[in-house]
Amino acid sequence: VIPAEMDDLIEQLKTTSVSPSDATTTLLCEIAATKDPKLFDKHELAECFLRLTQSKDTNVRKEAAKCIAEITKSEVQRKKFTKREIIAAFLECLRHVPTEDGSMELPIQICRALGNICYLNDEARDLILELKGDAVLLQLLDIATIEDAANAPQFIKVRGGLLSNYLLGGEGLAKRAMELGIMQKLQRMIDNGASNVEQHEDLLLNTLPLLSILTENVADLNFEAQLNIQLSRILAASTNPDLAEMCLELLHYQAESDEVKLLLAKDGLCETIYNLLEKYKTLASTSEARALMKLACELIVLVLTGDESMHYLYTTPLLKNMVDWLDSTDIDLLTTGVLALGNFARTDSHCIYFVEQQTMNKLLQVLAKNNGVRDDVRLQHALLSALRNLVIPKPNKNAVIQAGLVQTILPMLEIHQPPVVFKLLGTLRMTVDGQEKLALELLKNKTLIEQLVHWSKSSDYAGVTGESLRLMAWLIKHAYLNRIAYALPRKGDAPAEQIADKMPLSQDYDRSSLNEFLANEGTVEAMVSMLTAQHLVMQNEALIALCILSVVYLSKSGEPEQAQRLQDQLIECNVGAKLAELITKSSDSMTKEIVENLQNCINLLKTAEKLVPHLEQHNINELLKSIPILTEYCTL
Q1: How many CB atoms lie within 10 A of CB 324?
Q2: Tell me: the pLDDT tens digits for 262-291?
């Protein structure tokens, strides 16, 4: 239709709309057949069509509604048709669906027209609300059996479209629909659909989007347990990717709750997803199929983040299935297997079992193949998270070290992706806990220490800065604390002279690791800067590290040259100012342990001549007296 012809048709229609006839129906058919809605934009059609929608002739009403549906595909006409009388006429007609003759042709066209008028149109939605039309629209959901079989699929589709376009109007409309019982209506429809997913595919494809809209607009919308189970069953039975995606997205949202995680775990959702992924994994060649696969994988992992659901699934075949995925050549299945095992590894007994069963060795083999700069960051992060958990129980540490964890991890220092670095450092820190031999070795690793000093100063990622400092402090502590523990008095208030007297002149242990550590520029500065870290646990770790350095180098048995160098470095890093800042900022929240370590540290520093005036300059003795926990001891 060219513009001139359209203008002509509309003029004729305006003439005949006063007393419609067969000619009117013909004109309406021709107008409805146009492919370009913009041809209507310059015309004022609402009044003319209002008359036609009120015609006694059902055919005229049907064709008029069909025309309005086409015309209102244009934004300009949507606004022009946003009239109370037109919307009221449509609602009145929908109030009587199904019609006496059972035909769905007119309701279909009215749903289309009203749906298009509502599209991105709050004014139209508000009119529907004012006219209490939301109750009329929701009443359409009660139509379970449609006699007009030929038109049933089309009605199901346009009913869903109309309600979607209306409910997308936001929170107010969604909440009002909830008050009118929309959830119960949708639940009934989904129960019906789930009874035979293949037969009711259209019904489900046009019902589930309404649940998604409600989920987005109603805060903390929790579905009934039955509905979540039905979604899980539909997912298992469906072969339609769009339907699978809707179920997965809805279940994702619901599974944020631990109660739902357990419900879905017990209902076998994770096994369902595993079976579907095994069945379709070779078909995930398009980006849409791959996105769907990722969504399914993420849901398995999400369910496993719940404590009860994880414990339940540990006793099911899913555990073995996830171990099997460690051999997968598909990066998403492999990563999911690793993430799942990392979640199973949240208790000591599970971690010990994984080491005994060689699952840990499998994880290390995967890491060895994926520990380079160009490898998948998400997989690296997952592997390090899982290994970090496995290395926490004491009985596992030696086995994991023997299996080559450290050698596999150290090449990853080349990777500068903050999430990977954060996990890498945390994994090393957990591995070194109580492992004196390993800590001594790592203190000598120049590449590692230089990198830690660099990250402790320059990372934009607070977690990496903190982990770098903590790993250095842990290396010092676990390499030397057992050697020098005798020199740390149990009570923090012993005078400095006593400490100095307690230290034997010759101490038979190897200082070479610590010498090499301190030979790296910035190591002392790092430990001193850590005194004013945000977290008490880090402040405490810094104090312990400084106590160890003081015992090893500042005692009478230390080498005079090294003692001088350490004193100069400590003064250069302004250790007095940092201790003063620590006491001023954190004294109110200090625990007994931190206060004792602080006193030990200060007393040990005082055994060095150069440091005495430096500490006095910063008024450390007076500041110590201000710590609340110490004044409490005194007044007992």
Answers
A1: 14
A2: 999 999 999 999 999 999 888 878 899 999
> Per-residue pLDDT tens for 409-444?
999 999 999 999 999 999 999 999 999 999 999 999
CA distance 383 to 177: 46
Rounded CA gap, 366 and 370, in Å? 6
d(CA 206, CA 155): 10
How many angstroms separate the CA atoms of 154 and 146, rounded?
Answer: 11
* Long-range Cβ pairs for the range 313-321 (8 Å, 24+): 313/265, 313/270, 313/344, 314/344, 314/350, 316/270, 316/271, 317/271, 318/270, 318/271, 318/274, 319/344, 321/271, 321/274
CA dist 147 and 153 (Å) reads: 12
The pTM of the whole model exceeds 0.70: yes
Give the Cα separation of 72 and 81 in Å (integer): 7
- CB within 8 A of 150, min separation 6: which ones? none
φ/ψ of residue 591, rounded to 5: -90, 170
Handedness of CA 458, 461, 466, 471 (dihedral sign): negative
pLDDT in tens, 321-351: 999 999 999 999 999 999 999 999 999 999 9
Both tokens of residue 236? 């298992």
Peptide bond into 317 cis (omega under 30): no
- Report the alpha-carbon distance of residue 233 to residue 16 in Å, rounded: 55
Q: Give the span between the Cα atoms of 579 and 531, in whole angstroms.
A: 7
CA-derived radius of gyration, the chain: 36
CA 240 to chain centre: 27
Amino acid (1-letter code) at residue 193: G
Residue 429 region by backbone torsions, left for phi larger than 0, else alpha for psi between -120 and 50, else beta:
alpha
What string of H, E and C letters represents the secondary structure of 179-218? HCCHHHHHHHHHHHHHCCCCCCHHHHHCCHHHHHHHHHHC
Express each pLDDT in 459-471 by its tens digit: 788 899 999 999 9
Integer Cα distance of 344 and 181 in angstroms: 40
Q: How far is CA 425 from the centre of its chain?
A: 22
Q: Which two tokens stand for residue 432?
A: 């070194």
Q: How much of the chain is in helix, strand and coil states, percent to nearest 5? A: 75, 0, 25
3-state secondary structure of 416: coil
- Which of 298, 307, 239, 240 has the alpha carbon at shortest distance from 269? 298
Report how far residue 578's alpha carbon sits from residue 573's, in angstroms, rounded to the nearest whole number. 9
The number of residues making up the chain comes to 636
- For residue 59, CA distances in Å to 29, 100, 213, 389 come to 11, 15, 34, 71
Question: What value, to the nearest 5°, has the Cα angle with vertex 382 and ends 378 and 383?
Answer: 120
Please tell me the distance from the alpha carbon of residue 274 to that of residue 333, in angstroms, as a whole number: 9
- How large is the greatest C-alpha to C-alpha distance in the chain, in angstroms? 118
* Tokens encoding 243: 């339907």
